[in-house]
Amino acid sequence: MTKLSEPDRVAVARYLDGETKAEARTAFEARLHAEPALAEALAEANALRGIFACARTEPAPVLRPGLGDRVLQRLQRVDGGTTDLGIERRVVRLARICVVAAAVIFAFAVLFGSGAARLPDSGHLQADASSELIKVLDAKMKAAQPPGVRR
Amino acid sequence: MQVDENDLIAAAAAGDHGAFQSLLELHQARVHRLLSRFTRDPGELEDLAQEVFIKVFRKLHTFQHDSAFYTWLYRIAVNTATDYLGRQHRRRLHLVESDAELDAVRQHEKTAGSAAPLLEEEVRRVTREVLATLPDKYRAILILREFEDLSYTDMAATLQCSLGTVESRLFRARARFKEALERMHPELVPQYAAPRAQRGSPR
Predict the structure, then answer these.
(1) How far are the Cα atoms of A87, A88, A103, B105, B179 from residue A80, in angstroms, in the given order?
(2) Exposed, middle or buried, B6 (CB in 10 Å: 0-12/13-18/19+)?
(3) Crossing angle, helix A22-34 and helix A36-55, to 10 degrees?
(4) Under a CB-based contact definition with an 8 Å cutoff, are residues B38 and B81 in contact?
(5) pLDDT, tens digit, for every residue of A114-139?
(6) Nearest CA to A75 among B72, B46, B19, B17?
């Protein structure tokens, strides 16, 4: 890369971009003839412009028709009538609070509901019920067995 | 019938959707082309274009007529595109599809007889790829200058900065681009840039 000060390089860019005023342009062109380093910097900058000139010829992707309609639909959806963004946000926030509250109530119900089944007496009750059930089943099996068969 | 842009702006700012739609139709192609320099993905382009015009509709009442309407519009488009791409974690743009695809192009170029059109396509791809690596402010100013051909004054109005800032930022942006190009694709610099340099002339 050519060694040149930043102001000179900016002047080169300004010249290439057609942003140099008429009188400054004449003076700059005189310098170009006298200073090889400036001319070299101009060639370098111009080379880069060549790359951009090639890239800029690329066509943009096709624009889908109806952009205006889609934008207006979005605007109406967000701004129009009763569905403005503020209300939508409030509804969503309320729904979230309801869901959290329901989850908390459910958790309490599960916790205390199953806790009741574990009260001190409930174990005895369950054991009594089980032994009664076993006795009934035993009796039924004995009755169902043919005579002479021993368990 | 020729409709005055200022009338459309005034009517749209007052909430006239029809006027807004006419204004949008006047500028949509230009905005779309500008946005396509930031992303080539059709879905992203559509989202960006919608976002830009929604912002335009909402901010129209703040337009002061102290600059051309299109530079004001460009400002919104550049900021929207930059913010959007920032949210995408500065990921590589869809501008460059994939290394494999680029390799395929190179391979095809080697085997095909006419390399010129492919070389041009490769230059486009590489330009997009290198642009995508630059910081937002450099990428934006290069797009405005090299692709949209904005004057320094219009760039200053679009980017809301002084002419001096435009000059120095543009200088740094080009330097950064050249540096990245030489680092990422050194093969392209002598093969493509040098012959162009001899043909080029000031605008």
Answers:
(1) 11, 12, 34, 50, 50
(2) exposed
(3) 120
(4) yes
(5) 555 455 555 555 556 566 767 777 77
(6) B17
Compute and round to an integer the Cα radius of gyration of chain A: 45
**Rounded to whole angstroms, how far apart are CA atoms B57 and A81?**
17
CB neighbour list of residue A27: distance below 8 Å, 6 or more residues apart: none
Q: Is the pLDDT of residue A89 over 90?
A: no
Whether residue B71 is predicted with pLDDT greater than 80 in this model: the reply is: yes
Which chain A residues touch B182 with a CB distance below 8 Å? none
Contacts (Cβ under 8 Å, ≥6 apart) of B12 = B19, B20, B23, B57, B60
B168 touches chain A (CB under 8 A): yes
Q: Does B33 touch chain A (CB under 8 A)?
A: yes
Structure tokens at A116: 């009741």
B197 in reach of chain A (CB within 8 A): yes
Q: What's the whole-model pTM score?
A: 0.67
Interface list for B 45-74 with A (CB within 8 A): 45-46, 49-50, 53-54, 57
Distance CA B5, CA A66 (A): 21
Return d(Cα B26, Cα B131) in angstroms, integer: 28
Q: Would the CB atoms of B50 and A70 count as touching at under 8 Å?
A: yes
ipTM of this predicted structure: 0.72
Among B80-89, B122-131, B141-150, which is the least confidently predicted range?
B80-89
Across the range A36-57, mean pLDDT stands at 90
Q: Which residue of B has its CA nearest to A58?
A: B124
Task: Using a CB–CB cutoff of 8 Å, tell me whether B187 touches chain A.
Answer: no
Tell me if A68 and B21 make a contact (CB, 8 A cut-off).
yes
Give the single-character DSSP code of A59: P
Nearest to B129 by CA among A149, A68, A55, A48: A55
Q: Are B153 and B163 in contact (CB under 8 A)?
A: yes
